[in-house]
Design goal:
- Residues 872-899 are annotated as: Disordered.
- GO terms for molecular function: 3-oxoacyl-[acyl-carrier-protein] synthase activity; fatty acid synthase activity; phosphopantetheine binding.
- It comes from Streptomyces indicus.
- Keywords: Acyltransferase, Antibiotic biosynthesis, Phosphopantetheine, Phosphoprotein, Transferase.
- 38% of the residues lie in helices and 14% in strands.
- The chain is α/β, with parallel strands linked by helices.
- It has five domains: 4-420, 3-Layer(aba) Sandwich (Peroxisomal Thiolase, Chain A, domain 1); 446-514, no CATH class; 525-647 and 713-817, Malonyl-Coenzyme A Acyl Carrier Protein, domain 2, CATH 3.40.366; 650-710, 2-Layer Sandwich (Alpha-Beta Plaits); 901-990, Non-ribosomal Peptide Synthetase Peptidyl Carrier Protein, Chain A (Orthogonal Bundle), CATH 1.10.1200.
- The strands form six sheets. The protein has an eleven-stranded mixed β-sheet with strand order 5-4-6-7-1-8-15-14-9-10-12, with helices on both faces. A six-stranded mixed β-sheet has the order 26-25-20-19-27-28, with helices on both faces. A four-stranded antiparallel β-sheet has the order 22-23-21-24.
- Strand 27 (787-791), helix 30 and strand 28 form a beta-alpha-beta unit.
- Helix 24 packs antiparallel against helix 27 (725-735).
- Residues 883-908 and 996-1002 have low confidence and may be disordered.
């Protein structure tokens, strides 16, 4: 039989708010039982130590904390709808989300898929409390209740298109749901399935029933298979697992907690009572599960029993197991039940047991069972080949097998056989492309700044609590913690540094904001290639050491240059030789660095929207733009540097803090000096003979113009270059040059090249004529780049661009550089990718990490907001008892992600009746405060409106604005994009018709 992998899970049980805490509770044999919370019912009202009619015999049980807490904004559910929803729906939504994340999947990536949802549930007490209060029944109350809606909510909000159903077989509900989900996967009906169970005890009804039936433990505790067993103790909770066909999970390299080898479901039929357990049916369902799993009973290492702790129930279950295992007296099978820790969770009992078994197989240790020390001798466990676990059981190496039973009160029985996950297979990269930049890039998204900081705290705590490899952590973060509006990114060389940086960002809103961008934008990136003068010994040596990706492309450039240079430019650069400043080496070295950095960025998914190179930097820009191949570019740049190096000495260059026109008077009588570079309105470089430049410098200083002689070997971009032009032109004609395939802003012309080839004539003129950097960058501003990336060994151009006037609109592009200093390594490159990610880029994550780091790591679960509380019904009381307090209104939600300070400032003041009516109606229908409604908030995406709410909105608007009576829903729908759109439309629609006399006068 094909097998099913458990690839993700999440849960919340008494004393255990998440799966990690659940495992800790099990390992320490913790007790999750406490007094009935006052929020549920007044235990004293319903308590009687004897089985009095209408009374319970206990005031204790297993209750989770804060079942009324719900992050409705995360799921875009209005406060009014959230208040009407069964808490079981709310708990399942959050649990399912976290389970999918735990499976290494961003939940939004499942949208539109055939993923199935199967929910075990047997309690519907919220409906009993609310649907019988007829005056308060609303459309929201209708959709907020019902078994089917527990599954349908998950499918709806995660946009899942597979089967979606709730299963009620009483106490076996959630294990039956797992069985159905597994069969759907095996039949090909879906490729993923979420199987879950949930139970929230809202009334004492079942507690009374258990007491009247003689099934209730007076202390509220299940004591499975113990001599002290005296009945059921109620428990509650929620759990979900993500299931997939094992072969598919292994093929995708997913982590697997455990494998479901087979499962079976049957019914007692007509036996000794509809609520009584049936030994024969139980032993048959166990045997059927063994057969389907293809295992013999003696292969089972342990079984998680149903274990309610009732005398009859324990006896029937042990007898059924003994039928299969009685021959194991020498090596009895271990038996336990999680019900001893926090009670019988009814509809969630099966999923509670399944998660315990999966975690036990995953950790290769089975927790001891509470109350096992005093086993019930009348059960004759040893004679039936069974034993209770009085201490944790370490599983031997190799494959371990476990069983799991769940029996329904109405006679529906389920059993599953699980085994430990197979050894993880190493996942090799799909090809032999170079990968990795030496630093991990951690990303996290959230729907609001507050949610982002909350989850930064949670992730820092989770990573800080265990030894986590930073590479897999970063690689997984992009795959799992994605899809929300606010995008956070930060780099780190190791996990300790990452945790430190996450905590710092979480604690400082300003820092967090600086490291956060918003989805929905697409960065327009300008690559700026640095020119001569930026070189230095060992430039990019740190990056070469850290980043295999950069190392590959620098080696590639070096291989193309070597036939023309006669030696390795790469080795010259990395060895720290001062000769890198010589023109013959500086120019090919800068080309190699620029090319390698540019190709590295492209391979990471950073595709330039435009390119601009400063003087010699234009060669790498042209190569990346497709003007000529790497070999041709290498030949041309090498010839350029060598021919310039052969020119006689005596030339130099002078930087002057003055504009080109301002220098005209100083150059009027100096024919040997010319303008070589225009870097800005008051940043000009002159070139010529050293003697003439000294005279110009003295002239400028007399006019209080600051000057600086540059460290260069020759007078570039001046007539002193003329002697080498013919030889260079001959090589340039052989090399050729095409029209750029990407937008390239020429510093020769100071503008965009429009279908013009960068041929021999271009490159000859490029040597002789001035560099119009300021003009070219200003022209590029019209293309509105959002980011500039300086592609070179020093961020010199970024400094120049800050001194240029801002582009039209006044918004300067964000400047970043993958190499920022002589000691730059992988971090600066990672920070550049992080900056672009925050700006909307989706990098090629698989290229960012070496193959060894491309493996999943289970990150901490999403931390939902627990400040919003929804509990609209008072606690249950006995007839004749003191009247309940007035139903508590839901706490007003905190400002949402969409209701930011900017939106608050732009909120329309309800000074006119139409605006006041619109905002009031929106607030009433959604359960918001009027003060929360800003004009940019979207009715569907931000406020959670749906078609039912729109109908109610129209009705409320008509009550106060009779002019809307003729308005149809079809007329209204197109006007509901945002609060501001609706208000503007209503103002226009309700405006009085202009007076005809006034029209004629006008």
């Amino acid at each position: 039989m094909d097998q099913i992998a458990i690839v993700g899970l999440d849960c919340r049980f008494p004393g255990a708010p998440d799966a990690h805490a659940y495992w800790e509770l099990l390992m320490r044999s913790g007790d999750g039982i406490r007094n009935v919370p006052a929020q549920r019912w007044d235990a004293a009202d319903f308590h009687s130590p004897t089985p009095a009619q209408g009374r319970a015999n206990t005031t204790e049980g297993g209750f989770i904390d804060a079942p009324d807490a719900f992050d409705n904004e995360f799921f875009t559910i209005s406060p009014r709808e959230a208040a009407a929803m069964d808490p079981q729906q709310r708990l399942l939504l959050q649990c399912a989300w976290r389970a999918v994340e735990d499976a290494g999947i961003a939940p939004k990536h499942l949208a539109g898929t055939s993923t199935g949802v199967y929910v075990g549930i047997m309690g519907n007490e919220w409906a009993q409390l609310h649907l019988t209060d007829y005056d308060r029944v609303s459309a929201q109350v209708g959709s907020g209740n019902g078994y089917c809606m527990t599954a349908n909510r998950v499918s709806y909000h995660l946009d899942l298109k597979g089967p979606s159903l709730a299963v009620d077989t009483a106490c076996s509900s959630s294990l039956v749901a797992v069985h159905l989900a597994g069969n759907a996967l095996l039949s090909g009906e879906c490729d993923y399935a979420i199987a879950a169970g949930v139970n929230v005890a809202l009334t004492p009804a079942l507690s009374i029933f258990y007491n009247q039936a003689g099934l209730s433990a007076p202390d509220g505790r299940c004591k499975p298979f113990s001599a002290a067993a005296d009945g059921i103790g109620r428990g509650e909770g929620v759990g979900a697992v993500v299931l997939r066909r094992l072969k598919d999970a292994l093929a995708d390299g997913q982590q697997v907690y455990a494998v479901i080898r087979g499962s079976a479901v049957n019914q007692d039929g007509r036996s000794n009572g509809i609520t009584a357990p049936n030994r024969w049916s139980q032993q048959e369902v166990i045997g059927a599960a063994y057969r389907r799993a293809g295992i013999a009973p003696d292969q089972v290492d342990f079984t998680e029993g149903h274990g309610t702790g009732t005398v009859l129930g324990d006896m029937m279950e042990v007898s059924a197991l003994g039928h299969h295992h009685a021959g194991r007296a020498a090596r009895p099978m271990a038996l336990g039940s999680v019900k001893g820790n926090f009670g019988h969770t009814e509809g969630a009992a099966g999923i509670a047991g399944l998660i315990k078994v999966a975690l036990s197989l995953h950790h290769r240790i089975v927790p001891a069972s509470r109350f096992a020390a005093d086993e019930n001798e009348r059960l004759d466990l040893r004679g039936k080949g069974l034993r209770l676990l009085k201490a944790p059981l370490r599983l031997p190496r190799g494959t371990s097998v476990a069983g799991l039973s769940s029996f329904g009160m109405g006679g529906t029985n389920a059993h599953a056989v699980l085994e430990s996950a197979p050894a993880a297979r190493p996942t090799a990269a799909e090809d032999d492309r170079p990968r990795g930049i030496g630093h991990a890039l951690y990303t996290l998204t959230a729907p609001s700044p507050q949610a982002l900081r909350r989850n930064l705290h949670a992730q820092a705590d989770a990573l800080g609590a265990r030894r986590a490899p930073v590479g897999p952590v970063g690689w997984t973060s992009h795959r799992v913690k994605s899809g929300h509006r606010h995008r956070f990114a930060i780099s780190a060389p190791d996990t300790a540094t990452l945790v430190q940086r996450l905590r710092a960002a979480a604690a400082d809103p300003a820092l967090c904001a600086a490291l956060t961008g918003q989805a929905g934008t697409t960065p327009r990136t300008a690559f700026l290639f640095t020119g001569q003068g930026s070189q230095y010994p060992r430039m990019t040596a740190g990056l070469y050491q850290d980043a295999p990706l950069y190392r590959h492309f620098l080696d590639e450039a070096d291989g193309a240059l070597r036939p023309h240079t006669g030696r390795s430019v790469r080795d010259l650069v990395l060895s720290g030789e001062e000769s890198v400043h010589l023109t013959r080496w500086a120019q090919p070295a800068l080309f190699a660095v620029g090319y390698a950095l540019g190709r590295t960025l492209q391979e990471l998914g950073v595709q330039p929207s435009l390119l601009l190179g400063h003087s010699v930097g234009e060669y790498a820009a042209a190569c990346l733009a497709g003007v000529f191949p790497l070999d041709a570019a290498a030949r041309l740049i090498t010839a350029r540097g060598a021919l310039m190096q052969q020119l006689p000495d005596g030339g130099g260059m002078l930087a002057v803090l003055a504009g080109r026109d301002e220098l005209a008077a100083h150059l009027q009588d100096e024919p040997e000096v010319t303008v070589a570079v225009v870097n800005g309105p008051r940043a000009t470089v002159l070139s010529g003979t050293t003697t003439a430049l000294n005279r110009v410098a003295q002239s400028c200083e007399r006019d209080h113009l600051r000057t600086r002689m540059l460290r260069v070997s020759h007078a570039f971009h001046s007539p002193l270059m003329d002697p080498m032009l013919d030889d260079f032109a001959e090589i340039a004609r052989e090399v050729g040059g095409a029209v750029p395939q990407l937008p390239l802003y020429s510093t020769l012309h100071g503008r965009l090249l429009d279908g013009e080839a960068m041929d021999a004539d271009y490159w000859v003129a490029h040597i002789r004529r001035p560099v119009l950097f300021a003009d070219a960058f200003t022209a590029a501003g019209a293309a509105a780049p959002s980011h500039t990336v300086e592609v070179g060994p020093s961020p010199l151009l970024s400094s120049l661009t800050r001194r240029l006037p801002p582009p039209a609109g006044g918004i300067r592009p964000v400047a970043t550089a993958p190499v920022r200093a002589a000691d730059s390594g992988g971090q600066d490159l990672a920070d550049t990718v992080a900056e672009l990610y925050r700006g909307g880029l989706d990098p090629r994550w698989d290229t960012l990490y070496p193959a060894r780091d491309q493996r999943p790591y289970r990150l901490g679960p999403y931390a939902f907001n627990d400040e919003h509380r929804y509990w609209t019904q008072g606690p249950a009381r006995r007839p004749g008892a003191a009247p309940p307090a007035a139903p508590a209104a839901p706490a007003p939600p905190a400002p949402s992600a969409q209701d930011s300070a900017v939106l608050v400032l732009e909120r329309p003041a309800p000074t006119d009746p139409v605006t006041e009516t619109a905002l009031t109606a929106l607030a009433q229908v959604g359960g918001y405060e009027v003060s929360e409604l800003g004009p940019l908030l979207r009715l569907y995406e931000d406020l959670g409106f749906d078609s039912v709410m729109v109908m109610e909105l129209k009705k409320r608007l008509e009550e106060r604005l009779p002019a809307l009576a003729a308005l149809t829903v079809q007329d209204l729908l197109p006007r509901l994009a945002s609060v501001g759109d609706l208000v503007a439309f209503l103002r226009e629609y309700c405006a009085p018709a202009p007076d005809s006399t006034q029209e004629r006068t006008a």
